[in-house]
Amino acid sequence: MTTHEYDVAVVGAGTSGCYAAATLADAGYDVVVVERKDAEEAGHIACGDALKGASDFPEAIPKSQLESAFTNTDVDHGRFEIPQEDTVLEIPVPGELAVIDRWEYGRCLIDGADSAGATFHYDTVVQDVSQDESGEVTGLSAIRKGDHVTYEAEMVIDAAGSLSLLQDKVDFEDATFDTNVRYSQFCSAYREIVEVEEPVEWDDALVFKPTERSAGYLWYFPRTETEINVGLGFQMNEEPMELVEDLRADLQDREEFDGAEVTDKLGAALPTRRPYDSAVAPGYMAVGDAAGHVNPTTGGGIAGAAYAGKYAAEQAIEAIEDGRTDDESALWEYNVNVMDHFGARYAALDVYNIFTTAYDVDDLMALLAALPGEKLAEALYGGSTSIGLALKAKMAVKSFGHWGTIYDLYQTKNLADRLLDHYESYPSDPSGFDAWQRERDAIMDDIYELTGAEPKY
Question: Scanning 114, 154, 241, 454, which has its CA 20 to 30 A from the CA of 385?
Answer without folding.
Answer: 454
